[in-house]
Structure formats: C-alpha cells, structure tokens
Amino acid sequence: MKIGIIGTGVFGLAIASILHKNGHDIVMWTTFEDEKNDLEKNRVRSNFNNYEIPSDIEFTNELEEVCIDKDIIFIAVPAQFVSSTCNKAKPYITDQHICIASKGIEESSSMFLPDIVKNIFNTNKIGVISGPSFAIDIINNVPIGLSLASYNPKTSDVIYKALENNLIKMFKTNDVIGTCLCGAVKNVLAISSGIISGLNYPISTQAMLITQALHDIEELIINLGGNPRTIVSFAGFGDIILTCTSEKSRNYSFGQMIGKGTSKDELNSYMERTTIEGLTALRSIHNIITDKNIDIPIIKLIYDIVYNNKDCKEIINFLTK
User: Which of 5, 177, 204, 250 is at 20 to 30 A from 37, Cα to Cα?
Assistant: First the structure.
C-alpha cells in the first residue's frame, strides 16, 4: 500500500517502522523544513535511541505529497495540532482511509479527535489505534497489542491489513468513543499514579488507585455513550497499566515531581521542555464532566491538585476513605 504519515515524532516513526517491515511505501510529513532536511540527511532520530530510519522512507514538507494517491493516511501529530493540520490537508483528501494515531481530546472544543477529522474531511473512513505501546518498544520489535476502533468495517479491515504482523496483535471494535476516552484519560491517571510514587508509596498503593479509577472511567465511558467493556481492552486497562507504572511515561514522571514537592519553578521548567499530554487531557475531561454534570471524583481530585494547589496527599485520603 501507499501510506502517508502526518507527523514525524517518535510515535509516527514507530508506526512507520511497523509499516516498513510490512512492505508498504511510506511518505512522512513535518511542518519544519530543518527537521525534514535533518531526517533526510542523517536518517537518525537522536531523541529516539538513535533510531536509524530506513533509507526508503521519504520525508516532505508538502501535505499534498503525503496525502494524494495514498491508501491510508495516519495522523500522528499532538492532539492540539490535529484540527489546524487537517484543515491545511483538506484540499488533498478525497476517499483515503484515515487512521488516527494521536491520543487526546481537543482542549478548546472538548471534542474527540475522530469527530474533528470527520467534520473537516467530511468522511466516515476513519479509524483509531490505541493501546499499551511505547514507541521505543515498537522499534525494538517486541510483541505489541493495539485496539483498532472504527465505525466503518472496510476502513477497519484496511488499517488492520496494513499494520498486522507476527508482533502486532490487534482487536477490532466499533467503540470509537470509549477507545478515544481511554487513550486520553490514561495520561491523567498516570499523573496521579506518579504522585503516589513521589509520595513514597509502593506499587501496591498505585495498583489500588488504578483499580478504583477503572470504575470511575467505566462510568464516564457509559455517560458519554461508549461501551463499558472497552475499559478491559488494550486501549483501556492495557494502556492504563503501562502508562501508570512506568517511568518511561512523561505524565508519570511529572506526577512524581508533584508528589516529591518539586517547586513551581522546576515544574514550569519541566513543562516548557516536555510534552505532557495528561495536562491537556485533564483540562479537557474536566470540562466535559463539568459541562455534562457527571460526577467523576478521581478526575476532580487530580484537577484540584494540579491546577488549584490542593495538597497532593489528599489522594491517599481519597483512596482510603
């Protein structure tokens, strides 16, 4: 297949590595000319374990080149840039299948990414992949599990065929809402799990948090019209347990800093140089539950700790009350 990937971050490159192993033709887009030139010349991503990029993966700054005549277009830019990037790509979208690899919710609108993409491109050929899959593990060729959500069976089949191999196991679902919500909320829960670690509580207490939080997230999925069973999928429990227990997660590391009592100046410095998806997701999900008057205590507590200076030790009181 001919495949375009919008985004050259580490997860976009990880997806490209799967597709390359499966024998597909790949073009990747970045908005930055310097980045394009560096990737073409050096064929390495220094902040990605010096990953050596295959010589036949192409790079471009032109959205036309990454979209036209492609069988599938993967969207792998941060959630806050999905809307603006898709609007720029709109003239080049006809009947291509779209796979969203980005995770999160648009903060300004509190919309899920598939809804944004559907509105801009006026297509139902949209799928979402989500699951416990650190980019570094994908390029290291270990078994990975992914949920593949789509309302369109044909799109689901095409994306499945493109990605499936002996190391990539995928479960198909039509629960786009639950899959997207889990992909966003796991970063929020990772912050709270990191806080517990930073407070010097062991993984047993983190497991307590995760278990209690699953019930809250299941309730949120139901309230938003999703399938509660998605909480036990790769996109749900699988991704939550990975992100909430690993220091590879930037959200988890940020939570640890809060738990350890890191100063505001140090936290702000870390936020300036690090993408912490859980912060945007936290604001978006908090907006959703406030607007819809849904009582999700764990989300409200994390929001108050992060944004309203509530004592982070309250998370232990929450678990034990």
Answer: 250
